[in-house]
Design brief:
Number of domains: 3
Largest sheet: 5 strands, parallel
CATH topology of the largest domain: Rossmann fold
Strand order of the largest sheet: 3-2-4-9-12
Number of helices: 13
Order of helices and strands: HHHEEHHEHEHEEEHHEHEHEEHEEEH
Low-confidence stretches: none
Structural class: alpha/beta
CATH architecture of the largest domain: 3-Layer(aba) Sandwich
Amino acid sequence: MTWSLSRSLFISIVVWFAVEATKGLIDDTSKLLLMAMGGIQLLVVMYFLLVLLSGIVKKWKDHKALNYGFSIALTVILLIFIEGTLRVLDKPSWSAKNYKEAGWRTSRLFEQINELGFRGQKIIYSKDDYVVLLVGDSQVEASGVEWEQSPGPALERALNSKGLKTKVVTIGSGGWGNDQQLLVLPEYFRKYRADAVVVWQTIENDVMNNIFPTHWPMDGPIKPTFWLEEGELRGPNVQMGEKISYIGSNENAMFKLQLLINRVLYLKNRNPEKGMDASWEAKLPFSYQPQKSTTENVSYDWDPEKHPEHTYIPFENMENGKNHRHLGMIPMSPRTEYGIKLTNLILGRMETLCVKNNATFSVFYAEHAKYTIDTTTKVQHWKGGYYRHSLKRQFVNRQFINRGLDTIAIPITIADWKVSATDEHLNGNANVQVMQDLADVLFKRQLVND
């Protein structure tokens, strides 16, 4: 059926005003419906213009110049239509985030978030309060337990019960190494004071977190990272919160269509962390090399099928040392030795910063007795390789990590101490026990006193 220009104009006007009248009946809060109505009106305009141009072409079909003009005009109309549709839908958004931030604060939403962005009470204390800054990783954040049984409140109660008016501030997040802890300390001291700084050490992951520029297991979220250069501490490569762009800048785009093209062209760069571990690893000493075969008795403790409680084992990166077991490998790899020296220097710089700000500095760790009494060396099988591993070797390495630092060992004395069978973070009761014993040691050694 062929429509005349007048009929097309009539239909376009009727539909336009019908839609406009309908829009007046729609609640302003129904933004999606209003955008759809606007899109219909835009289509009506496009329809009439196409009918008009097709009539011109039929009349002047023998004129090549007009045909070319029609093609150009049709292309322009199509682009205008696409641009208009994108603007109506506000896709992609002008304000879309086109960067990732290096480092992170708390990894979850909690009711108690302090002024620095960590799980903890508000940083409020009086001039008479003894302020303890408890620093760590997921053990300090304690996302698996209720607030009152998390380390901060438990340590504060324990010290207050001894007659010492105390406020405990917590800084720590899941996946943190000592590098992020070091970088947040100056931010804390710029605004607040501390009489004692206590670092909760988790060597199973602290050292590997310090070695690599992304989170475990490979090319995870980007984080600030220090390195060694001729035995000296250098870095970090990026600062906490530094913006790392991964797509074209929104500021240079005048049109939505241009912004969309930018997003498509830069799609492959939306993950700037991809390949960071490999490029960083090229500058590191080589990692542990497993045996391809063995005549010794083999343990399958690392087999996830036989030990499903170890939920993270399938993701361990044994090849490059970014795993929770590298400190116990025999012989010790040059990369692990590098990580031990790196960690010791980072902790040493933390100590220097704390002393400069009139605070004592201590490192403490908490372990269950069953780990400390295991002195056997086992050959573990993992994905076709054989790894000689000893917990005793791991504990010896900790002495090198903490060399020259005030170190406190707190045994976990309760039998049921895990959050769950698959989560080896301390549960609420274990936190209370460990913090009570830590308070006893700190008080007796007068690291915390009135």
